[in-house]
């Protein structure tokens, strides 16, 4: 493996700018693939060269594996960075890169296969002795009663052949189990032609805590955890690192479990292992692994001082990690707010349009990752995230204060944004206390919107 | 100088002259060459030894008058429907699908765009006379890039 000289950036928006930024620092040339809608973006202006992949729709541009490969080869690139989303965890792209002498800046196809399918990933977690949500398949009511002792209540009875949220029954008390079990089995048989069911513990109070992994194939390291519990309809809104209110022992077990999982599947590259933390029982369960750089990676960079994109490129070049676990130190606290072009008071509908003004104050401890410029078009074809504000402080309090100042001072005009929502979260006493669970934001919203309407 | 002979330089000059390019900057090991159409050839030994960067070639659109063979010129741009390698002919050595002066119909094939070994025929899209071959043969074209120009009938 040799030094990468020219990277094809197969993504858009803020992450394209992020990758290009590190490449500019390292003296690596970049070729950005854009759709027709993204020809005039900041990324297009900063890349060494730009080529148009296709029309605005992602399926006709960013998601076309053949076009991306053709563009990367045709512009003399030796590597492809897939960003996040789009084709970042697409096995076909990773394979096509390998077949066409292009370095895929991510894990190999075998790794992608191991973690791409949730069930396969869970199988690996089990084999690696990493805790999973307690549960299992059962054939009879007797087996269900037996397993219920371990699984506990409330629990879910799920149809093995079900999916998309269908075929699930929630059982709150042991006495409800026999009736609901029989119902679940007959409904599953009727709806899916397969009466098999399995039980799974239902975690009522859960936190989403994930661990950043770095591996060069031999050395597997972690760079601490992130808490991403502030979510709306399973979309992350605010993330932070470290995760507040976790005991040192718990934090360490979590990170070690993540490393164990990554090592077990022979993972090579940068990745994140996601866990569900059962707050009441003080246990954690493996959820899945994301084999890509994540949106919220800046909070980890803020507390560790590392450039994760640079490390990811180095791993892809075949260089061994020049880091030992003991050398990775985290300091202070970081929070990230995802600024979206959306109308908070109209069910969060995306608010595309032309940004007339975009300005963020230069505060100590504030980092802004964005592709916005005055005059930029926020088009309706892609997700609505337009900027990430990342605030770092020696303490969580200090980070929150800096974020509050940034949200008050910033100027974003021309489109509606969720800045007011973030200001409400960051100012909320419950959030300030730290350690909120995944029910938090849904609980905060109704009160928020009524207030604003009344104002 | 590392590895480049006088004959190599002559070849490079000839290739650039025959192309649409106006400028070439080439770094090989510790030699740097700059070629500019109408200007001279500059060569220098780069003092440090950087990692050899691949050639940074600037492609300037050649003036239409120099390339167009029909006096009428002009015509509507036919944009590329795909990103890929544009070929003027069905296969190497064969006659091109069209040349300036040819009359074409909407569905006349005017070229092929190859994407990962898959050949895609490009139709003219309008009835008219081909006025100019804009995108060079065998080169990467992006989505929306002008392939040829056709004067509508």
Q: Please, could you describe this protein's structure?
A:
The complex is a heterodimer of chains A (455) and B (153). The model of chain A has no long low-confidence stretch (mean pLDDT 95). Helix content of chain A is 35%, strand content 28%. Chain A is an alpha+beta fold and 455 residues long. The longest helix of chain A has 17 residues, at 248-264. With 153 residues, chain B is mainly beta. Chain B has two domains: 1-60, no CATH class; 64-152, OB fold (Dihydrolipoamide Acetyltransferase, E2P). In chain B, 11% of the residues lie in helices and 39% in strands. Chain B has two helices and twelve strands, in the order αββββαββββββββ. Chain B has helices spanning 6-18, 64-67; strands at 23-28, 31-36, 41-45, 56-58, 76-79, 84-87, 103-104, 109-115, 118-123, 128-133, 139-141, 146-152. Classes of the chains: A alpha+beta (455), B mainly beta (153). Chain A binds chain B through residues 3, 5-6, 29, 36, 48, 51-55, 61, 66-67, 69-71, 74-76, 96, and chain B through 51, 53-56, 82-85, 114-116, 118, 140, 142-145.
